[in-house]
Design brief:
Layout (H helix, E strand, L loop, with lengths): L16 H4 L3 E2 L1 E6 L5 E6 L2 E6 L2 E9 L8 H9 L1 E6 L5 H6 L10 H4 L4 E2 L8 E2 L4 E13 L7 E14 L4 E2 L2 E2 L7 E3 L5 E3 L11
Antiparallel strand pairs: 1-13, 2-3, 2-6, 4-5, 5-10, 6-9, 7-8, 9-10, 11-12, 13-14
Bound molecules: flavin mononucleotide.
Flavin mononucleotide binds next to strand 3, strand 5 and helix 2.
Amino acid sequence: MFYQPQLRDHGLRHDPFKALVVPRPIGWISSLDAAGRPNLAPYSFFNAMAADPPVVVFGTSLRPRETARKDSQANIEATGEFVVNLATEALKDPMNASAASLPAGSDEFVHAKLATVPSRLVKPPRVAASPVALECRHLQTVELPCDNPGRANYAVFGQVIGIHIDDGLIVDGKVDILRCRPLARLGYMDYTVVDSVFAMDRPA
Ligand SMILES: Cc1cc2nc3c(=O)[nH]c(=O)nc-3n(C[C@H](O)[C@H](O)[C@H](O)COP(=O)(O)O)c2cc1C
């Protein structure tokens, strides 16, 4: 089959796009609002864009009933800081709970029954149970095209300025990612887990 997203002519029950760009890592983003109240939410339009210096980006979309930017974006633009916590299989339920649409200023750490731990270089706390956290400084927000009136799409870029890795993940000087089984998003309501690894050398 072939379809053009702008024409929505896929003929399927659900838009297949998000089932095709997979698996998407989940940026589990903690931030503070201007009054210092914590916020936590998962974003699967998330990835690393560069390594030196490390830069990450996440995409946030407003639905019709949402009139304002999502709290994570608004907080990051107001304070200039955020943390990306690694969502693992063991944390799937609190990760999902933290996606609840709570009123601005509500603390998803409390809602998802998650303990916090302070960050080193930025003010937003980390998820204590997450084995990896990236402390980030906001670089810029780019407004993306949007075909739906009343909605909007943004990409929020951040530079990673501090990285926490649970010592238990380091084996022979390398991160053994299978020890923490990162969670990733597929299409529809589906998820996957990083539970196998193979290596391949680059061509000369
Ligand atoms: C696994 C998962 C991935 C999500 N990815 C995104 C995303 O990439 N972009 C987005 O706008 N919302 C995404 N959401 C929905 C947000 O998490 C949800 O709207 C949340 O309430 C936003 O919180 P905030 O307003 O505190 O930032 C995702 C939800 C889940 C459960």
